[in-house]
Amino acid sequence: MLNVVVLVSGGGTNLQAIIDAVDSGEITNTKIAGVISNNKNAYALERAEKHGIPNQCISPKDYESREIFNQEFMKAVDVMQPDLIVLAGFLVVIPAEMIAKYRNRMINIHPSLIPAFCGTGFYGLKVHEKALERGVKVVGATVHFVDEGTDTGPIILQKAVEVEQGDTPEVLQRRVMEQAEWRILPRAIDLIANGKVKVEGHRVTIES
């Protein structure tokens, strides 16, 4: 049974997609061990509460220094004994020590086809604003392992979504969520839970 801890900063739509996929059996061999947010007002915490999932807020604002926050944050994660950590819209820099400890056991969902529209400053609506500004015809989402860079870890899954005439950043964001993010994030978790994902260097192989 794969013990999963989900880290989230906002509404938790990707968290909900994971919860629903576990409940429906789309994600197998998996238990959501806990949810941590840096934002005490994050609706994601309510979503977790409604489903009886342990949840808590650990915010850098509540600590004297980032170093102390990092220590307490790592302690809270370690207590849940995760086999996999899922970043589902988590807007806090992950400590390097934690990345090293959970190498190839921490994944992130990003709302673009990496390496397009990713890296520092590309998050949330900003990704879709830039995609529309550039006039691309296809966007999408990527699930990747987390490394020391920003959106630079080995890619597990990607799914393309077409841009439509008259799209606004908000409309495009929603379509990317519905058609890509909420599909490939649960799929990636299920593949990992069933031992079908192998990492060699910067490449990921998925067993059929």
Automatic annotation (TrEMBL):
Query: Which keywords does the record carry?
Result: Purine biosynthesis, Transferase
Q: Which organism is it from?
A: Dorea longicatena
| Catalytic residues identified in the record | H110 (proton donor)
> Site described as Raises pKa of active site His, positions?
D151
Name the residues that bind (6R)-10-formyltetrahydrofolate. R66, N108
Biological process per Gene Ontology, one example term: 'de novo' IMP biosynthetic process
Q: State which pathway it belongs to.
A: Purine metabolism; IMP biosynthesis via de novo pathway; N(2)-formyl-N(1)-(5-phospho-D-ribosyl)glycinamide from N(1)-(5-phospho-D-ribosyl)glycinamide (10-formyl THF route): step 1/1
Lineage: superkingdom: Bacteria
Instruction: Provide the catalytic activity annotation.
Output: N(1)-(5-phospho-beta-D-ribosyl)glycinamide + (6R)-10-formyltetrahydrofolate = N(2)-formyl-N(1)-(5-phospho-beta-D-ribosyl)glycinamide + (6S)-5,6,7,8-tetrahydrofolate + H(+)
- Transmembrane ranges? none
Which ranges carry the Formyl transferase N-terminal domain?
A: 3-189
**Does the UniProt entry include the keyword Transferase?**
yes
Functionally, this protein is described as follows: Catalyzes the transfer of a formyl group from 10-formyltetrahydrofolate to 5-phospho-ribosyl-glycinamide (GAR), producing 5-phospho-ribosyl-N-formylglycinamide (FGAR) and tetrahydrofolate.
A GO MF label: phosphoribosylglycinamide formyltransferase activity
Protein name according to UniProt:
Phosphoribosylglycinamide formyltransferase
Residues holding N(1)-(5-phospho-beta-D-ribosyl)glycinamide: G12, T13, N14
